[in-house]
Design brief:
- The protein has 84 residues and is an all-beta fold.
- The chain has no helices and four strands.
- The protein is elongated and about 55 Å long.
Amino acid sequence: MKKSTAKLFKYGRSQAVRLPKAFQFKADRVRIKKDEEKVILEPMERTEWPKGFWSIFTSDSEFETPAPLPPVPVDEDGSRIQPR
């Protein structure tokens, strides 16, 4: 497990953390959990297929295209995640 320290700062009325490069997320949103005094950040999964993803495949009559992902992000419990 990697360990490091990070700087906390104020961003408006919120507290923010400047993550070292080795800890930065590829996602643009994270899920936040609090376990007593620990705050846990986890990257959010994509909510849609990347543009043009399906066009790279050839047609196959035996292959069933999966249903589209939900149009809005949902949390683990199925509740809708509010956009910013």
